[in-house]
Amino acid sequence: MIMRGRRFSYLDEGEGVPVLALHGTFGRAEIHRPLADILGPGYRLLALDQRGHGLSSHGGDFSKDAFVQDAATFLQSYGPAIVFGHSLGGVHAYQLAARHPDLVRGLIVEDIGAVTERPEVAQPTVDIGSWPRITRTRDEFVEFFSVLPDPGYFLASLVQTAEGWRMLYDYDDMMAVQQANVGRWWDDWLGSSCPALLLRGSESFMLSAAQAQDMLKRPNTQLVEFPGAGHWLHTDDPERFARVIREFVASTNFDL
Questions:
Q1: Which UniProt keywords apply (predicted)?
Q2: Nearest alpha carbon to residue 16 among 72, 78, 97
Q3: Which residues, other chains included, contact 136 with Cβ-Cβ below 8 Å and sequence gap of 6+?
Q4: Which 3 state secondary structure label does DSSP give 19?
Q5: Residues facing residue 104 across a β-bridge
Q6: Is beta strand 16-22 parallel, antiparallel or unpaired with respect to 81-86?
Q7: Which domain holds residue 195?
Q8: What is the pLDDT of residue 253?
Q9: What pTM, to 2 d.p., does this model score?
Q10: Is the residue at 142 inside a domain?
Q11: Closest Cα partner for 81 from 65, 97, 92, 70?
Q12: How many domains does the chain have?
């Protein structure tokens, strides 16, 4: 799809109520494929490779305005949706709800807060300068990412080329994306009133228990904690994650 002068790749599965999924930094639309099964019949999963990620165009503007306008333009082709976002995608999800309320009927935010800077977040960005750029074998990347909490999340963007194995994204792009995500976004979080579900892993390094409680100042918001889960709580506790998502989308009473 060509949109706003850029190429975007996306996943489109199922029929019915549209659900837009927005991945985190280093992610891609493909990681949200399990959501189609979680949602089940009556829902249409639309997962977007956000700019700089996956098979979408690299380079350019990585401001929050750019990401949000991408999502808004994309949804204008499908109509109002329930919007799910993890990490970086969660910020874009609640910003989309605040700035384009006509496009968002329900909001699911996985493990990200209204504040993404110090001191609320101890490490807002990850220096990836030492990450391998290209390797001879896939196993070299597998070994490198094995020490991270959810290696599969990162390996989903690994591809084989004529030169060797590499990530789909540009490393400089990813640093720019991370830096632009650091900030205080309370106005956006509090700027919408649609039903919202905030998910937090008890071992999260991105969303503290105190900030999650503060985010309940937003009306029509439900907080669900996942004991023992980290930032990728959908991987750490997939059964409960699926159950909570199903219960929320069923409760939105979305009229087609």
A1: Hydrolase
A2: 78
A3: 164, 165
A4: strand
A5: 81
A6: parallel
A7: 2-120+184-251
A8: 76
A9: 0.98
A10: no
A11: 97
A12: 1
Residue 105 tokens, joined: 């009927």
Token pair of 192 as six digits: 């919408």
- How far apart (Å, rounded) are the C-alpha atoms in residues 205 and 155? 21
Each residue of 161-212: pLDDT tens digit? 999 999 999 999 999 999 999 999 999 999 999 999 999 999 999 999 999 9
CB 97 within 8 A of CB 194: yes
Where do we find the tokens 């930094």?
25
* Residues in a beta bridge with 22: 48, 85
223 within domain boundaries: yes
The structure tokens listed for 15 are 């029929």
Q: What one-letter code names the amino acid at 69?
A: Q
Strand order across the beta sheet in which 221-226 lies: 10-14, 42-48, 16-22, 81-86, 104-110, 196-201, 221-226
Residues β-bridged to residue 18: 44
CATH number assigned to the domain comprising residue 14: 3.40.50.1820
State the pLDDT at residue 255.
61
Stretches where the chain sits below pLDDT 50 are: none
Residue 164 contacts by C-beta under 8 Å, 6 or more apart in sequence? 134, 135, 136
Concatenated DSSP letters of 129-161: TTS-S-BSSHHHHHHHHTTSS-HHHHHTTEEE-
Burial status of residue 16 (CB atoms within 10 A of its CB: 0-12, 13-18, 19 or more):
middle
Residue type, position 31, single letter? I
Q: Look at residue 139 and tell me if it is in a domain.
A: no
